[in-house]
Structure formats: C-alpha cells, structure tokens
Design a protein that fits this description.
The protein is mainly alpha-helical and 230 residues long. It has one domain. The chain contains 9 helices and 2 strands. It is globular and about 50 Å long. The model has no long low-confidence stretch (mean pLDDT 93).
Length: 230
C-alpha cells in the first residue's frame, strides 16, 4: 500500500534527520556548539513530546496527500511523469527551483494569513508552542495547517509537468530546509544574505510578528516584515 510505504519512509527520515540533528547539537555536541545556540530559553521534555506528536500527525497527512496525487488514476489530471523523453533533459533540473520559488511565495502569504487573529489561536498557535524550537518541530503543525502546507502542490502539478524524481528531490530539500529553520543553532548567518536563516525563523518563534519567509528573505524585505536576528 502506497500510503503505508510513504508514511513509514517519511517517519524514519524524520527521526533520523531531525533526531540526529537534535542529538548532535543538544546532547553530544552541547559544549562544542554552545556559541552557535540562538536562544537560551530551555525546552522541556513536554515540548519535545508535543513537537514529535504533531509532526507525526503532519507526516500522516502528507503521506495521505502524496498517495492521492501519485495514484495512476489521476494521471490525466496530474502532470507527474517518469519518462525523461517527454520533456527536455534540462527541465527536471529547472523544475526544482521553480517549485521552490512557488512554494516560498505561497508559504509567505499563507503563513502571514495564519498569524491573523482569526486563525492564529485556532490553527497556527500549535506550531508556536515551541518558543525555542528544536529540529523535532520541523513538521509540528495543527492538522489544518498541515493540510494547507501541502495542498498548494495540487494545482501546481495540474499545470506544471514535474518528473517524479524532481518531486522527490524538491520534497527532500523542503524537509531539510524545515529542519534547518528549527535547529535552534546558527551556522550560516551572514554567508548567504538572501536566504532565510535558522536565526530568522527562531526569532519568528520568539517574537511572532516578523520573519514569515521559508527559503528566502525576498518577501519579508519587500513587505518590510524582516525582523531582528538578535
């Protein structure tokens, strides 16, 4: 069953990468990486349990979504392809940054909308239960937010052809970016000034009113919502 395979794979990946990052930074390398820590606010065992619980719910929803869009019966409507002869050889590579740019734009405006008082307490507050997030918070969303986090792909894949391996690569990049945003440690600030850093997103968790971006700082700077990184 495709759903079971997807859920199993995503869950194992989550615990290996998020769990590995947590152990390296907060346990095994705690002293070594102390200077890279962004916030000094301690996190509790309850916070970790909450982050893991909601992340598993999100992975369940993501797996259900991908099992639907990968269903062969949707072939006439969803432009996911596997035969490389259907499109130029450069297209699978180009489609990945295109998906990232579309995702970044969608996420910024969806994220800002969820911070409106009408939606925040009902849905987005779940993610902000972690004032000082850990890598386990990468997918710690309310189920409605988890649905919103992935549904944007449906209309995009109805219009833009995407090779299945390009989609897998994009999903993996997105996952790594989510983990990076919730590391709680900074290793890249100042090296790539157009990229959203771990510090930017950590400060979003702390202050709530700025740094809404996902991959880049473009929309935050254009809309003047880039906040402090201290």
């Amino acid at each position: 069953m495709l759903f079971a395979k997807l859920f199993f794979f995503q869950t194992i990946r989550y615990f290996i990468i998020s769990g590995g990052a947590f152990l390296i930074l907060n346990r095994w390398g705690k002293s070594r990486f102390k200077k890279n820590r962004i916030q000094e606010i301690p996190f509790s065992q309850k916070q970790l349990s909450t982050e893991i619980k909601y992340s598993l719910v999100t992975l369940f929803i993501f797996s259900a979504f991908f099992s639907v869009i990968l269903n062969p019966s949707l072939g006439p409507y969803i432009k996911i392809y596997s035969d490389s002869n259907h499109y130029p050889l450069w297209w699978p590579l180009l489609s990945i940054p295109i998906l990232i740019i579309i995702h970044d734009t969608y996420f910024y405006w969806m994220h800002r909308t969820l911070h409106h008082q009408i939606f925040y307490n009902k849905f987005h507050r779940t993610h902000h239960l972690s004032t000082n997030p850990t890598p386990f918070a990468a997918f710690s969303f309310h189920p409605i937010e988890a649905f919103l986090e992935t549904i944007w792909l449906l209309p995009v894949l109805m219009v833009i052809p995407v090779h299945k391996y390009s989609l897998i690569t994009f999903a993996f990049i997105s996952f790594l970016n989510n983990v990076k945003g919730h590391l709680g440690f900074e290793f890249s600030l100042g090296k790539a000034k157009f990229l959203n850093s771990s510090t930017h997103h950590s400060m979003h968790h702390r202050y709530f009113k700025s740094n809404y971006g996902l991959y880049f700082l473009f929309w935050d700077r254009l809309c003047k919502t880039e906040g402090s990184t201290k």
